[in-house]
Design a protein that fits this description.
With 425 residues, this protein is α+β, with helices and mostly antiparallel strands. The chain folds into three domains: 110 residues, no CATH class; 145 residues, no CATH class; 126 residues, no CATH class. Helix content is 48%, strand content 11%. Strands 1, 2, 3, 4, 5, 6 and 7 form a seven-stranded mixed beta sheet that branches. Strands 8-9 form a two-stranded antiparallel ribbon. The relative contact order is 0.10.
């Protein structure tokens, strides 16, 4: 038995409406199961029950065994003083409040159908699936129910991404332009160097970026120098030396501190090298002023125009300092632009609109409808289950579903899993 199943049973009333009694023989009528609490404290707030006909209002706590009350030390926590019912699978000990009064206990073991238990066991039996628990029955779920759930998952994913944005807003004293800069740095650093690039960005006061936006060489030297790519013992050609001299001047002028760690090149394709990504980002900031307005505040920003800037001439024949390569214009690819939109632009729009009280989820969905879906193993496996994945909004929703529900066996917190339990239970 798992506690999440007991939560599901209580919340969706998978027990007889009539005939419930506590372990001491008191009759129970459930008028309201309460509000499900996913944070600390009792599991359900503001429930309403009739115990022997008398109306009680308060909280409900759920455990597998009654003795878990003491194992979790709830007797010492004032947050549990207003618990009016202890719902358990097995009642193995009486539980008392601080004032000595006994908390009524409802044991669900005698009230739950074998069919419901069998359905749940089958759902979580690892022998029955290769990808996700419900893969054999996924196609049976009503599309309307599924699509509504996916919309909610997309918003949930944006809320998760908002956590970092809100941290950066606090760090920058609500300077949205600065936050955009830091988020773009993370995006340009990808998974390998993203966190490192954010730390790099934090070493540069954003007014310095504004001052240097009309000086491409200075801006590029600033980025390269702060990334520790212009160390004295690393100079390999005249261009790198010119950047180093400019950087030494800027470092002294603005009293800059450099990050402890230099970015990694290992396992990266040349087009994703830190040198190329920083050169591209410096070109973007050299070519555009007030990027936040262009990308976030405008209703229909021309992303391709903003990011289609290439690099300085040196990088057309180099991927790293001192090593000449075949000439190529290193513009941002469409696939990388899609990642920028998914991971930076849309989350920032979500946060900014929420901050202003102008959030429009339909427009946000529409913005992503023009962005191609991601291609990864998660999306490929969902498509094998005949999932309809048309654009980036759909792929983001399915990634959220897989990472936050399927992998964690949170089937009963998932609308799809709940629907299967309701259909079969």
């Amino acid at each position: 038995m798992r506690e999440d199943l007991l939560h599901f049973m209580w919340m969706y009333r998978k027990y007889p409406i009539n005939g419930l009694v506590t372990e001491t023989g008191d009759t129970i009528e459930v008028e309201s199961t309460g509000i499900h609490n996913h944070l600390s404290g009792p599991d359900f707030f503001n429930a309403k029950l009739r115990l022997n006909g008398q109306l009680w209002a308060g909280n409900v706590e759920i455990h597998i065994k009654s003795s878990d009350w003491y194992a979790h030390k709830h007797q010492d926590d004032c947050n549990y003083d207003n618990v009016i019912l202890h719902v358990v699978w097995e009642d193995d000990i009486s539980v008392f409040r601080k004032d000595g009064s006994q908390i009524p206990t409802l044991s669900l073991k005698e009230y739950i159908s074998e069919e419901l238990l069998k359905t749940y066991k089958t759902l979580l039996d690892s022998k029955n699936y290769k990808f996700i628990n419900c893969e054999k029955e996924f196609h049976t779920i009503n599309e309307f129910v599924k699509n509504n759930w996916l919309d909610r998952l997309f918003i949930e994913r944006l809320e998760q991404k908002s956590l970092l944005i809100n941290q950066l807003l606090s760090y920058t004293n609500n300077d949205w332009e600065h936050v955009l800069f830091l988020m773009l740095l993370k995006n340009f650093g990808s998974k390998i160097n993203g966190d490192n690039f954010i730390e790099l960005g934090k070493t540069i006061d954003f007014p310095i970026i504004r001052k240097l936006q009309n000086k491409p060489l200075a801006l590029e030297s600033l980025f390269m120098g702060q990334a520790r790519l212009l160390e004295n013992d690393q100079v390999k050609d005249a261009y790198q030396d010119s950047l180093l001299k400019e950087y030494i001047f800027l470092k002294n002028k603005f009293s800059l501190n450099t990050p402890f760690k230099a970015p990694d090149f290992f396992k990266l394709r040349p087009h994703n090298f830190p040198t190329i990504r920083l050169a591209q980002l410096s070109a973007i900031y050299s070519s555009n002023s007030n990027l936040f307005h262009l990308l976030i505040e405008e209703d229909h920003p021309n992303m391709a125009e903003v990011f289609n800037v290439g690099t300085s001439e040196y990088w057309e024949t180099h991927f790293n300092f001192g090593k000449t390569s075949k000439k190529s214009i290193k513009r941002i690819s469409n696939s990388f632009l899609d990642l920028i939109i998914i991971n930076t632009i849309i989350p920032l729009k979500f946060c900014f609109q929420s901050y202003k009280g102008t959030f429009d989820h339909e427009k946000l969905f529409q913005d992503l409808s023009y962005v191609k879906k991601e291609d990864n193993s998660i999306i490929l496996n969902f498509r094998k289950l005949n999932a309809s994945i048309k654009d980036a909004k759909d792929s983001q929703s399915y990634i959220q579903l897989y990472n936050e529900y399927c992998v964690k066996d949170k089937c009963l917190d998932c609308v799809i899993g709940g629907a299967l339990m309701n259909i079969k239970g």
